[in-house]
């Protein structure tokens, strides 16, 4: 028997080589048509999902906005150009801009606009100053700081009706009114808070201040914590005291945030409704016996739902909307100046 030379012997293929060979043959061989169709369908579904899923997710917001935002706005604008009563909203008579021109000669409208402005100033300025001071205190390391942060936000979470009814009792003319009781301790006669002009507006402003100071304080606190610590360290090395650091470091750094809170508070004051409505005796939309704290929101409510002049109420609503647009434009101009100076 003749031996075969070792260099001419053929080694048996291993299991790994056989698997690789099978995969190579499968790659070379034509693919299964059914599998190709399944892969194509999955690919098309994936592309459709990536393309349309974002629109499906945001569609509920736009549907609700169209139903409860854009349509009422457009309908109110159309109704403001007609004489239409609340009882017969489909019976419209075209009057053009007459509803708007009547507002210019309406003393009650100017009274409501003036009250809205004064209550807005009385409530916004002390509110933001107190919020800035509270945020400055909470910005330092205090024991139980989380408790104080939650506590100052509690009034914001309180119902408007509950808060206003409590303040009605506090500002009551009778003996159980806590404010008059406190004034009596220092020898001051009882004040008729609801029937006075400035006293009623001050009382309504106190409700707004109590509810929104903590909310704005947390906004200021978040902005303060974003200020770089290096600025305070540099000011301290230059010999600046805590008050000087607050004036020359904290407040300039908070200018955009302060502007934001001023605009938001102004918009809220323009739309003030619940507090003056519930503060009045019997929840009257007149804002007191002499309309002394009737705001634009109350005046709109009185015209539309008590007098049932839907066209005139729509004109008031659009006037308030134009006022808010002017506030937004003013905010834009001031913001541009701040950015340019910075």
Helix-strand layout with pairing:
Blueprint: H1 15-28, H2 33-79, E1 82-83, E2 93-94, H3 98-104, H4 107-138, H5 145-157, H6 160-170, H7 178-185, H8 197-225, H9 229-237, H10 242-253, H11 255-270, H12 274-279, H13 296-306, H14 310-341
Helix pairs in contact: 2-14, 4-8, 4-11, 4-13, 5-8, 6-8, 9-10, 11-14, 13-14
**Percent helix range:** over 70%
Low-confidence stretches: 4-13
**Helix/strand order, N-terminal first:** HHEEHHHHHHHHHHHH
Task: Give the beta-strand count.
Answer: 2
- The strands making up the biggest β-sheet line up spatially as 1-2
Question: Looking at the structure, what is the overall shape?
Answer: globular
* Largest β-sheet summary: 2 strands, antiparallel
**Strand content bin:** under 5%
CATH topology of the domain at 106-219 and 251-308: MetI-like fold
**CATH architectural label of the domain at 106-219 and 251-308:** Orthogonal Bundle
């Amino acid at each position: 028997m003749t031996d075969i030379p070792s260099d001419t012997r053929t080694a048996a293929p291993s299991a790994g080589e056989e698997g690789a060979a099978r995969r190579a043959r499968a790659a070379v061989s034509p693919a299964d048509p059914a599998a190709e169709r399944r892969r194509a369908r999955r690919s098309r579904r994936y592309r459709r999902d990536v393309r349309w899923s974002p629109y499906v997710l945001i569609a509920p917001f736009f549907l609700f906005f169209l139903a409860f935002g854009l349509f009422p706005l457009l309908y109110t604008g159309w109704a403001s150009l007609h004489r239409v009563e609340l009882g017969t909203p489909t019976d419209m008579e075209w009057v053009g801009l007459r509803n708007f021109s009547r507002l210019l000669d309406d003393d009650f409208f100017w009274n409501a606009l003036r009250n809205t402005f004064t209550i807005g100033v009385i409530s916004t300025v002390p509110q933001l100053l107190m919020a800035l001071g509270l945020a400055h205190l909470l910005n330092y390391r205090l024991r139980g700081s989380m408790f104080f942060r939650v506590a100052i936000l509690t009034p914001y979470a309180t119902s408007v009706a509950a808060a206003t009814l409590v303040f009605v009792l506090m500002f009551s003319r009778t003996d159980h009114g806590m404010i008059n009781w406190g004034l009596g301790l220092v020898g001051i006669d009882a004040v008729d808070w609801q029937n006075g002009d400035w006293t009623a507006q001050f009382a309504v402003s106190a409700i707004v201040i109590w509810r929104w100071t903590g909310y704005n304080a947390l906004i200021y606190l978040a902005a303060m914590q974003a200020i770089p610590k290096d600025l305070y360290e540099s000011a301290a090395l230059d010999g600046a005291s805590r008050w000087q650091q607050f004036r020359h470091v904290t407040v300039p750094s908070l200018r955009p945030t302060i502007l934001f809170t001023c605009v938001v508070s102004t918009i809220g004051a323009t739309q003030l409704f619940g507090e003056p409505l519930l503060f009045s005796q019997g929840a009257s939309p007149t804002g007191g016996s002499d309309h002394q704290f009737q705001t634009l929101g109350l005046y709109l409510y009185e015209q539309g739902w008590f007098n049932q002049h839907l066209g005139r109420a729509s004109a008031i609503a659009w006037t308030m909307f134009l006022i808010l647009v002017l506030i937004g434009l003013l905010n834009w101009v001031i913001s541009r100046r701040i950015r340019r100076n910075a």
